[in-house]
């Protein structure tokens, strides 16, 4: 009698637990999607107590807070905080604190970036703690680049055709007298870099998302053209070469063919070629904008006349242009890198406290280039810690995903020579996506065999089928 009376309660208890778990998974899924989407919104923030608080800094804290609120995910989060990649990144942040306390002329100025780095660390640990469910972040990023690329190209066309009459999602490049697409990113270079990095992860799926790959092969080159970013084109091509070379060599060594390997890269190369063909007809935009830029006043008309519009994508000039400007910035940074400062650095985010922008007196300088930025802020020791972080990431990437991991690292390194997106959330989301355990969606997957990359993970067994297929 007792057994019969307690059995319905036991069944009801299990159902309640399952429903509670499903609700928790749905909220987690929504927050992961929100985190990825917020990483595309780097342009937006609000000033609080003199600091610019960005949308992409707030949403990750909500995700980490949510993961901390439930016992099971809290245990996974604490375990992720001891992951070697997270520990090395933590050491890099700690060294930033040391350099800042020793040499920063303004702790408040440095604190803004130090806090951002801590948020990045929590974001990295949070996504890692999801285990196989981290594929939710990857799927979201991959799907977002198609509409984002098309929207960027449309914004670029409209802004230039209207001669600056309608310019949302664009910035005016006064050096080249043309509007460039940035969409909701901080700047055009970061917009294009985000497109390229997520597209490489789509390529790694080897044609399993053929329709989406075809769409990306159209949208991403157009978005890159809209950004007028030469570095992004170079980085995408280099990334594809590294990926294909690694895969071809490994296929040859293993003596087996990999189906779908060439599908994505060929489509993208064709898309880039066609896109550049389209770009040859676009310099006329610059000529019209140069004459009709609404910001030009009588006082500045002589300056506007001196700035002859030119094709930005085809400009490779080491004496002038953006490349020459970055060389001047690097020379200014080198003035402060000697003695102890060469090894320890000058303190996080302090270049603008010591230097103006070259050619713009009174405008605080910014280094832009990541290697120079790291060397200036935290010296050779900090740069070595960053290299150690990259090595640690590559060591913990499942072997099936190593070709695209090396391609992403090379692409990011090439992009970082011209722009710095190290602090932005997309960097850490993609890093966590690379080292996540393999899932049934991954080609050649053996979930049990690869789950060791995270140490412990059985989250895929508890996620609902609908959530697995996001």
Strand order in the sheet with the most strands: 1-2
Strand content: under 5%
Summarize the main sheet: 2 strands, antiparallel
Computed Rg: 24 Å
Number of strand elements: 6
Average predicted local confidence, pLDDT: 82
Distance between the termini: 46 Å
Low-confidence stretches at least 5 residues in length (pLDDT < 50)?
286-310, 444-469
Which of globular, elongated, flat, extended, rod-shaped describes the shape?
globular
Number of DSSP helical runs:
21
Q: What proportion of the residues is helical, as a percent range?
A: 55-70%
Name the structural class.
mainly alpha
The succession of helices and strands, N to C, reads: HEEHHHHHEEHHHHHHHHHEEHHHHHH
Task: Sum up the structure in keywords.
21 helices, disordered C terminus, two-stranded antiparallel sheet, mainly alpha, 66% helix
Walk me through this protein's architecture.
The chain is mostly helical and 470 residues long. The radius of gyration is 24 Å and the shape is globular. A two-stranded antiparallel sheet has the order 1-2. A two-stranded antiparallel ribbon has the order 3-4. Strands 5-6 form a two-stranded antiparallel ribbon. It has helices spanning 2-38, 55-69, 71-80, 84-103, 107-129, 135-161, 188-203, 210-227, 230-254, 263-279, 283-292, 301-306, 321-334, 340-344, 351-354, 370-395, 402-416, 425-435, 447-450, 459-462, 465-468; strands at 45-48, 51-54, 170-173, 178-181, 356-357, 360-364. The protein is built from 21 helices and 6 strands. The chain starts with a helix and ends with a helix.
Write the layout of secondary structure elements.
Blueprint: H1 2-38, E1 45-48, E2 51-54, H2 55-69, H3 71-80, H4 84-103, H5 107-129, H6 135-161, E3 170-173, E4 178-181, H7 188-203, H8 210-227, H9 230-254, H10 263-279, H11 283-292, H12 301-306, H13 321-334, H14 340-344, H15 351-354, E5 356-357, E6 360-364, H16 370-395, H17 402-416, H18 425-435, H19 447-450, H20 459-462, H21 465-468
Antiparallel strand pairs: 1-2, 3-4, 5-6
Helix pairs in contact: 1-2, 1-6, 2-3, 2-5, 3-5, 4-5, 4-16, 5-18, 6-7, 6-8, 7-8, 7-9, 7-17, 8-10, 9-17, 16-17
